[in-house]
Amino acid sequence: MNLQTINDIASELFDALNQQKIIQPLTDRYPEIDINDAYQISRKFLSLRESSGEKVVGKKIGVTSSVVQEMLGVDQPDFGFLTDTMRVQNRSSFSIEDSLIQPRAEAEIAFILKEDLLGPGISKEDVIAATDKILPCFEIVDSRIENWNIKIQDTVADNASCGIFVLGEGACSPEKFSMEELSVEVIKNGEFLSEGKGSAVQGHPAQAVAWLANTLGEYDIPLLKGEIILSGSLVPLEPAKAGDKFSMELKGVGTCEINFI
Asked: CA dihedral defined by 236, 233, 219, 4, rounded to 10 degrees?
């Protein structure tokens, strides 16, 4: 895929984000697009956001569950970038009309780093040693692609379908628990919705972060001290609409809540 096409697609995604509109799947219109093209589009998309004043505050891992990987026909996760404008305060009310198109909620474990990590060669143990704390998090994924009709190239180009994220209250050292055994319970509108364990994320959330560090290392991009790293959903994605209230408890760690208006 030539540079002009990459730039044109990134501009189309940037306009879709700002105008809260959907576009047709990239893989339908550009059958030649490959995963490397998609990451180049994602980087250009990010640069447009940075040019508009947004600042990168972290990174996210997506497509961590075997179910989603099977749906997209891949055998590995993907990644995107988090910016300051994506962060929403815990227990706040957020208007979907402000910035989202077709949101879905995910319950995750967020890592806050105390040291840089640059792959290759990063292990799960390296991630745990470099992490200051973990805490509960809602990521509200969103897609600029119509009806979430995505293949892996579509979501990668679209910054891994990032929307907004909410860091909860309560945190602990990554060594306090066996993270693969950590369990989460999600409540929607006062009723039980779902539950899951850390093992749903690549077998261990820190393993997913190690994958991210090693994959970004191929692009010479480090995970930086102080960054927020979202490790992937422990539960199935759940559509969100105005009037919905989501809360989660990461057992033994803390809680997180977001209300949509």
From this structure: 40
CATH label of the domain that carries residue 235 = 3.90.850.10
Between the alpha carbon of residue 230 and those of residues 29, 79, 207, 237, the distances in Å are 31, 10, 12, 15
Which positions ≥6 away from 96 have C-beta within 8 Å?
Answer: 103, 240, 241, 242, 260, 261
Question: What pTM was estimated for this model as a whole?
Answer: 0.95
**Do residues 219 and 159 lie in contact, with contact meaning Cβ atoms separated by under 8 Å?**
no
Say if residue 174 is exposed, middle or buried (CB neighbours under 10 Å; 0-12, 13-18, 19+): buried
Total number of domains constituting the chain: 1
Residue 170's domain comprises: 3-260
- Helices 3-19, 35-51: inter-axial angle, 10-degree rounding: 50
From first to last of its 261 residues, the chain has per-residue pLDDT tens of: 999 999 999 999 999 999 999 999 999 999 999 999 999 999 999 999 999 999 999 999 988 877 666 766 666 788 999 999 999 999 999 999 989 999 999 999 999 999 999 999 999 999 999 999 999 999 999 999 999 998 989 999 999 999 999 999 999 999 999 999 999 999 999 999 999 999 999 899 999 999 999 999 988 899 999 999 999 999 989 999 999 999 999 999 999 999 999
